[in-house]
Known about the structure:
The structure holds 2 protein chains of 2 kinds. By secondary structure, chain A is of the alpha/beta class. Chain A is built from 23 helices and 22 strands. Chain A starts with a strand and ends with a strand. The longest helix of chain B is centred in the middle third of the chain and has 13 residues, at 54-66. Chain B has 4 helices and 9 strands; from the N terminus they run βαββαββαββαββ.
Amino acid sequence: MEINGAKALIESLGREHADTIFGIPGGTVIPIYDELFQQNVVRHYLVRHEQAAAHAADGYARATGKVGVCLATSGPGATNLVTGIATAYMDSVPIVALTAQVPTEFIGNDAFQEANITGITLPITKHSFLVNSAEEIPQTIKEAFYIASTGRPGPVLVDIPKDAQTGTVRFEYPKRVHLPGYQPTYEGHPRQIKRAAAIIAEADRPVIYVGGGAKLSGAVEEVRILAECIAAPVAMTLMAMGTLPAEHPLSLGMLGMHGTKYANYAVTESDLIIAIGARFDDRVTGKIASFAPNAKIMHIDIDPAEIGKNVRVDVPIVGDAKRVLQKLIPLVKNTRTKAWIEKINTWKREYPLTYEESGLKPQFIVTEISRLCPDAVICTEVGQHQMWASQYFSHRDPRNFISSGGLGTMGYGFPASIGAKLGRPNEVVFDLAGDGSFTMNCQELATAVAYDVQVKVAIFNNGYLGMVRQWQEMFFDCRYSETKLSEINFVRLADAFGAHGIRVDRPSEVAPAIKEALATPKPVIMDFRIDPEECVFPMVPAGAALNEIIDTKSGRRSHK
Amino acid sequence: MKHTLSVLVQNKPGVLARTAGLFSRRGYNIESLTVGVTENEEVSRMTIVVSGDDTVVEQVTKQLNKLIEVIKVTDLTKESYVRRELVLIKVTAEGINRAEIMQLVDVFRARIVDVAPKSLIIEVTGDQGKIDALNSTLKQFGIKEIARTGTLALGRGAKVIQSSKE
């Protein structure tokens, strides 16, 4: 049967089980919207800014493990997706971004609402396609989903000119992809795995350093087994929080710039770093020359280009984390870490995460959310609140912590939480936000209300772009250049959109507010008026070694 | 140190932009890049000369391999290979100089492919050393224009770089 390209697109999405898409119509994308109107294969959610469509698709993908899909018109619609695509790229999130394009005969003519989106997104996509005709749509969609979701996941963009949408195709969904240059390595090399086991057996002070790759590969269980089997502590990146539950005795929490002191001390003094699906980002390593100076480094990653990119690696293993660990675990044995674990436990007792309990403290709010909703999906924006969310929430599952790590995109969390809630409708979903970040995509309150997506937003309102203010306080003599934000009445903002707003000024009001939010069958904004000059500690200044940690306001550096 | 990479890619629009873009955005320097279709018309070969130490070249290779349309990357520098470049040189050639230039052309086994009253175009093929030598010899007469293809290369012997990973 011959159908048009737009219908072929929707049929193809159906074959890929992409039942949820986020987007906004516009001139060149009308034929696709016309077909969306006449089908029930996919459910489309109208957002209010294309950036939110990309973030919602991303949040949906992170929460469910499926591929997220967003749709935008040509030109400004497509360029508005860019921040969301870059966010997904940096954190290896599988999304397919569909953009309409001006008809092929106008491409290159600076036509109305034309932008070379495949060119613009070249450095921030895993791959991209410019479709030439309706016939190419099924094969392209098949390949786009395949590329996005396999190997190291990432965003794929498919640009579809208007005449390809309206042209006809005899629809047949392809069974296979034709990608001769794309064959990810899943199985680790057996000899390297043996070498790894031998090195682990000789380690006295091993540290497992886990990144987001472990959850992407479904290796959460394997990481725990490895850790327990060799009695090695586990330090996690922002992307990996919850891979080992916070309460687990071997958990060191987060490492890096705002990591726990004991995680950073452990890394610095270790004699073997076992990196799993992590990329030695500068926020994690601090000054590279002083990163784990006495350690051998083992690196398991599915992306060969990550190995040896930032640090020298002694035992590289290219492969899928789950499969590699399954092969490695039966071979490992280590009975030498008793003294090491004792030392770490001493550090844990000596240097716990702490804050002063006076006034309304953000750390207290996170602790309360964690206590009342331990299984909630926590999305965050970017900044101080993000670090507090990472540090003080008792994470249990890495798929329940959704945050823009690599790109650090303010405005990410709220639309991502909408995507997460739609992907996992039976769970409680929070967006922990700063007042600065939240206003970057607060128009999505309209989306949340329109589709009754009952996300609970907790704004840590300090009236500042807080993280920048913290840096200005610590490193720029308190010159608060353009970081003071004007007052916003978030309760009335919620009200204007038809959501529910709650203002909280005192610690005693925190738990009741969270309970009220959970009991209110609506999107809710909690406006927590926190101590405006609270800082995130501990902190390793940018470019310093991991053991050069500032842990109080007075800027006292403890050096170990 | 210079490395000559032979890169087999799918012959598709945009693949050149993707490959060349990779070099600029990751901060690698390209000395030359040539591209043309291979014996299999679905596959093109790019010959890329990059300078950098071994770690840089290792990263370049890995990043190239990450591109979906890149089928195979081989560092020819690690083996024995033939390297050629074709260059056209338009040189000022008047009066007595013409004979001398023609003699030089013979010595270098180059060819004259265009003759005009005041200039000649010389075509020369060879490796970098030969071309540089001819270039500096012709300088005294006045070089008006130069066009170079960039380096082309193939590994020596019967071994081939498979265009399929399957």
